[in-house]
Design brief:
Two copies of one chain form a homodimer. By secondary structure, chain A is mainly alpha-helical. Helix content of chain A is 61%, strand content 8%. A three-stranded antiparallel β-sheet of chain A has the order 1-3-2. In chain A, a hairpin with a 7-residue loop joins strand 2 and strand 3. In chain A, helix 1 packs antiparallel against helix 5 and helix 2 packs across helix 5. The radius of gyration of chain A is 20 Å and the shape is globular. The first copy, chain A, starts with 12 loop residues before the first helix and ends in a 7-residue tail after the last helix. Chains A and B meet through helix 1, helix 5 and helix 6 of A and helix 1, helix 5 and helix 6 of B. Chain A binds a DNA duplex through helix 4.
Chain lengths: 157, 157
DNA sequence: GTATATTAGGTGCGGGCGCACCTATCTGTC
DNA sequence: GACAGATAGGTGCGCCCGCACCTAATATAC
């Protein structure tokens, strides 16, 4: 005996639905996204994200450390991503004049063109598989929830 | 010239808040979770998940393919996870009598004990960093949203 | 000034995992 | 029965990335 009642502490069904659902949705979407970007553009999602953030930046350039902050990768990971992107001509590296330890990653015209192609299909995919399932009010609600998670002080509802 | 207006097609701010927030929250939480499980139990999150699902299963055993389905890993990945868990005595492998191609991964008593330790702290962490920021009604709403994403036919609100 | 601590970026090493492929087995057709 | 195709699980190869560490440069203390 002592075979049943071997249960372990666990999430409640409510918690499991919310947390497990997040994990599941993220996993499935990321798999689709990686596959899509690889097929259409031969780049990974982290590479895509670096290109995108460079396109947003003033002068289409960012310091490596700033790319690493708020990325899923560490500085060493970003360093290698930039190296790969440079090898195929989508970005170039330039030493920073104001701090000669540092370096900029700069989006090339080829990189911008590639990003446009990548982003077009990417937006279609993410909308079809995720965003279009929600109304504007719901998207706003969701964004507010994420902000609540990010900011520990924002516990007030 | 032709320097500005080099913008690319992109998500709306509303969409970026919802989709980017999901990516950010997932990334940050996963980093914390991986770190926590590694420090306290020397296991990764995928290893933890395999132990957890085995503990749920009838007879604390599952086929490798069933573990792979609804996992973030492929069959080969699961195969290696089970190999690692077997090497440290948390699971054992057993050939399936009803289909001699197949194999079961079976949670050992040591595996169950480890899972209890891992899960206790894990639940505390996920609640503190995520679940406790929402009320029961909100958790229910969130779970419903994830179901809506998973099921393409469930587009009706 | 010099000495020390900190920081930016890069790299050798090791581990994890997907892809393609292998073997063994099961299933279906004849 | 024989045989083709599908399926379960495992594995060699290659890629990716975190960790620890390195070098060069900057910031701080004295």
């Amino acid at each position: 005996m002592a075979d049943h009642e071997d249960r372990v502490a666990d999430f409640t069904p409510l918690e499991a639905g919310a947390w497990g659902g997040l994990l599941g949705v993220h996993g499935r979407l990321m798999r689709l996204i990686e596959q899509d970007l690889a097929e259409r553009c031969r780049i990974s999602h982290v590479e895509f994200e670096v290109l995108l953030r460079l396109s947003w930046a003033e002068g289409r350039r960012m310091r490596i450390q700033d790319l690493a902050a708020d990325s899923v990768l560490t500085r060493s990971g970003i360093s290698r991503v930039v190296e790969r992107l440079e090898r195929v001509g989508l970005v170039i590296r330039e030493s920073a004049p104001e701090d000669r330890r540092g370096a900029y990653a700069i989006l090339t015209d080829a990189g911008l063109a590639m990003l446009r192609t990548a982003l077009d299909g990417h937006v279609v995919l993410v909308r079809a598989r995720f965003l279009d399932r929600f109304g504007p009010d719901e998207l706003e609600q969701m964004a507010a929830w994420w902000r609540r998670v990010e900011d520990p002080d924002d516990m007030a509802r």
